[in-house]
Fold each of these.
Amino acid sequence: MTKLTDLTIRGALDGLAAKEFSAAELAEAHIQAMEAGRDLNAFITETPEIALERARESDNRRAKGDALGAMDGVPIAMKDLFCTEGVLTTAASHILDGFTPPYESTVSANLRSAGAVMLGKANLDEFAMGSANITSYYGPVKNPWKATDGKDAGKDLVPGGSSGGSAAAVSGGMAVAATGTDTGGSIRQPASFCGIVGLKPTYGRCSRWGVIAFASSLDQAGPMTKTVEDAAIMLGAMAGHDPKDSTSAPMAVPDFAAALSGDVKGLKIGIPKEYRMDGMDPEIQALWDQGVNWLKAAGCEIKDVSLPHTKYALATYYIVAPAECSANLARYDGVRYGLRIPGDSLDDMYMNTRGEGFGHEVQRRILIGTYALSSGYYDAYYIKAQKVRTLIANDFKAAFEDVDVILTPTAPTPAFALGEKQEDPVAMYLNDVFTVPTSLAGLPGISVPAGLSKSGLPLGLQLIGRAFDEETLLRAAHAVELAAAFNHKPGREG
Amino acid sequence: MTYVIKGETGDWEVVIGLEVHCQVISKAKLFSGAATDFGAEPNTQVSLVDAAMPGMLPVINEECVRQAIKTGLGLKAQINTTSVFARKNYFYADLPQGYQISQFDQPIVGEGSIILDLEGGASREVGIERLHLEQDAGKSLHDQDPKRTFIDLNRTGVALMEIVSKPDMRSPEEAGAYLRKLRSIVRYLETCDGNMDQGSMRCDVNVSVRPAGSTELRTRAETKNVNSVRFVMQAIEHEAERQVGIYENGGEVVQETRLFDAQKGVTRSMRSKEHAHDYRYFPDPDLLPLTFPQSLVDEIQSSMPELPDERKARYVGDFGLSPYDAGVLVQEKDTASYFEAVANGRDAKLAANWVINNLFGVLAGRGVDITNSPVSAEHLGELIDLISDDTISGKIAKDVFDIMLETGDAPGKIVEDKGLKQITDTGAIEAAVDAAIAAGAAQVEQYRGGNEKILGWFVGQVMKATQGKANPGQVNKLLKDKLDT
């Protein structure tokens, strides 16, 4: 029998249904793994009591044959950006010290209704701002993977970010699956770094209500799982129209898992030439070529497409996202909740609280955003960025006239060593060069583990779909997954 | 009646524009389900959204949108079926989000107009620049504790309509008339209760001055949050004088925000350059553009109540009232309703006279509004009936009215009880007339000598003899008949 901590969602559901093990046993195994893996710092808050209680409830439902949700009894990690009722919620920021919400985010509530069992709150970059999970007030997360060769061999590696704790938890066998959020690549890039599947759904597919905001027009919750099928199952449990989120799409949730027919014959796959960048790592290029060949062999039609405004995406993103964050984070003022550092006046209190409460990366983005929105610069930065964003979205629209799915690498490199790029924000921002355009266009994107680097680290391929066509996207991703047959595990024992 | 400021260098005129914040009448707030009742215990009407808890999102309240459209239609304004909510960023302890959700370059309502009713029945049109929806802030309570400021978030997120006029007003009186008319319109529409003393209608006053006859627009100063019509007029007077003084002394007026000191009747600079705000407006990414079909506008248009201007026109046209009287009666919806109840089926001019010349004085004297009138519309109407059918004279009616004020009794009962019924019996009147003529031989001489004014003496005698109940018309006629023969 497979180790309980190696189970996928599908495997766990099957085992529970066959009474091979109970939800409580499944939860217990993961709680032990979570405790054993504490050196990875994947969790900010562990909630073993909640996990066991919900697992027992799940077992009771199963015993009685009561209606079971799509994830009944499956233990998951919850990115600590989702507000969870009665459980400390930090966004990995000092400024939310002691904040325990009296409410549950829609997505985590949906998952709970589906029977998922919360193991704890996963670490992340502070306010989801980062690509290496090194900006957390609660310390960096370590990647369960170690390089076997090359300059980083044996070093502690970053898990990617911002959903680094979620990725590490799933990759390290501490959770069957995890929630993530993706603003410019925060699900897909850590999924790639940790050798798991990460799906950013179409903007509007999952409710943002109760998810601590970074950049409202980009933030989107999604599943981080071991397989494409799991991503399909979990997305079904997370998604749905929410009248409490005005940007949530009033659309029915399809049966995503049913879309994984395995048949991709005739599917048109676009290869965007603009993603073939100068100085691109040859092994990333090789992996991408391999992906093309896999899909071709599976019967897909490969077509070159052009996304001409790709080169402006990162610059556009680093105007739009900071601009929105500069306003979204204004509410952390020390007045009503979280950290307050007193001062002689209201202004002093604000400055003390926000100066101490926010880390450097968050402060940097608030400053960039404030500058971009300020009088005299607004047109040159914010308005220009919005126009370019429209052009980028139009690029995709045009490409999707010809193709059904676009294939690209997920990230330009494998996981790098902890401490690297720490002092160079621009180098760090380049991690998201392949994922940001999708976010700006609001399209669904998925990272599928596709191979190992020479240094023995996982590499992901990204597939991008049409808006609200996660079904086709998942079908294509499934084909890549089958062809890649990626069954490597991180060096460490979970 | 031009308003002119006599300066040392010549005459100056004042240019006034008003920004009025009207609290929208709605059960729930603009973007949350929290209640909006005035005067509730602090922080008892606060939702998670209002308190800007992490992860909370605004959802537009359709009722507030309808109210804004309705008000826009009442201002004869352009309704924009697509508009955009924007964030206005600034830090303050009673602004939990750190930004106010407002509308910036794409408001829900565009240009419109408002007709001012001025002294002596004159009227004048003032342009409306725009109306937009926005959130109110909370309240900072500085007087609860010697050291600390307390925050009440009950008002946070309540919907406001900011109604911006064009700089079309030229005197404090016009500004006062504008506010009264705007208040009248929103009260007719039931979109805002218009209570300036409770803060549900607040006014920012933009004032500049220029040499009389000039068409330039000079730098304006904005006086914030003036909370009565009288204070607005005072603030304008003071501000205009101040600016004229600056120019005449060779200075320049600076564009700034000022506060009105109601005790001293002056405006004062807020002197907060360090807080010179850059609001960094940008479209709120939590909200989609606000769109609605034209059919919604049409539906609201078709259910609009009669507004003061239309009602005034009806009073003038159908009832034959003077524009001035009609304007006075329609200003408050309750007054107009009262008047119509009195006038219904009766002589409308007589009804108007009684309401304006008799009742208004009593109400003002007692400090009550018409909904608490000591005399009901039904009773006043009955009194007018008694005059019209010659049961009592106009003079006796005034006495009856006084008794009605004291007792609240119906006029018919009073007339009956007190025996005030007019004497129309010709025989009785003739007897009194004969007695008066017999007693006034000297006066008869004078009358016949050409002093017709002396007739009044005889009338007085007859009225005295009949305790004022003789029909004055009959008395006059009989006297003349007898004296002229």
Amino acid sequence: MSAAAQIGDLSFVHQGAGLPALDHVSLMVPAGESTALLGPSGAGKTTLLALLDGRLRGWRGRVSVLGAPLDPDHPPPRAGRPEVGFIFQEFALVERSSVLRNVLNGRLGRMSPVRAALGSPLPRDLEVARAALADCGIADLAERRVDSLSGGQRQRVAIARCLAQEPRLILADEPVSNLDPARAAEILTLLTGAARARGATVLFSSHQPDLARRFADRIVGMRDGRIAFDVAVGDLSDVATADLYRETTALPAIGLRAVT
Amino acid sequence: MRSRGFGGFAAGALVAGAVLWSFATTDVDLSRLLSAGPRIADFLGRMVPPDPTVMNEILKGSAETLRIAILGSLGAVLLSVPLGILASETMVSPVLYRPVRTLLAFIRAIPLILVAMLMVGAVGLGPLPGIIAVAFHATGMLAKFYAEAIDGVSRAPIAALESAGAGPLARLRYAIWPQMAPVVARDTIFRFELNLRESLILGIVGAGGIGFYIQTYVRSFQYDKAASMTLAVIAMVIAIEAINVALRRRFA
């Protein structure tokens, strides 16, 4: 089994924070599969995904993504960035631009810098963008402005933009946390299906065990910046899941002591 | 409560002191004050009826004021684009934007009429000193607005494009500019309106436009003609206001 991402003894502390967001994390993300990062808020899921996307500096450890090692002190070379797609929790779309323009923005890294700045997409760029729109079921919304869309429609645009990038690894940060359960299942079906059709690896984070169980091949449990478990979906035990979400006792205890 | 009562008393004493000081040091002679009423009435009387034969001068002066405002605004936009970027917290380091912001505040602090007077001294009478003065004065505000427009842009779409591998120019064009454009358009129109309004009186110091005629007529005691020009200024201000209200409704 080859790895889409390989992480060894990775630690990271956010600037000004006391506790590490990631604490000696070692993990292998298998290529061609769908892996879920499961865990409560503050477990370090977003940090880990942003780090794999090459957006964080100053971490310690060894990280390689799609076979290329990341440098903790420098951003990754621009040429390789389209290979890793990212779906943001808050969509991160340009609200005043059209749906098609937003999806074409995913092609900018595949164009020459001059062509990207001039804004003249090649027929192939348009073709890929249109195909991504169609795959996400929003071909008819191409000319609409994003600020006129619903949350579910926006998430589809964000996924289409990511697909237009033609990534080999798709990182998705809580892609359905803003959606109702029916809409959430639709979006995850779409995301994992489109990735499988393209042979791309998916690593998505979620705080909902049922969704992770339904849409992932592998589930990685995270808590307090550490990996709690890393299992195939069939091996996930309810006990392990419950332990992931156990209540933190440290804070109330401190509070009680302060009162007495 | 006691300190607040004392504060109120102190404020009252300060205001009373300022009024007394102004009376004591200004020559407000009671007889002169009483005779001022009839004099003003006489002055206004000589303004009626306004002389309608100055229509030509009104058109010429208004057109020149409009040209000063347009070219002055153009100059301000051209200066504000680079200065706005240099005054932006998100584009340059504090070492650069702090002094640029101080410079802009300094420019804003100089009244337009003063800049115009200095420019008339430097380049002579006519619309040119007016245009330079408007461009200079308006840049103090417009560059600050542009900087705020840049800094007000949401960072997430920019990060998304960077993550997709887009270069700085492509990010500027497709993530930053679409968010800024409506703010920049609104601020530029707002500043143009102020420029037009403020350049109406620039002629009084010799910097061209309709104000020049008013000053000339008043100095040569042709109050009926000055009255016509003044009415034209009032009409223009009302027209600018009406257009502005209509534009604001469109942007809302």
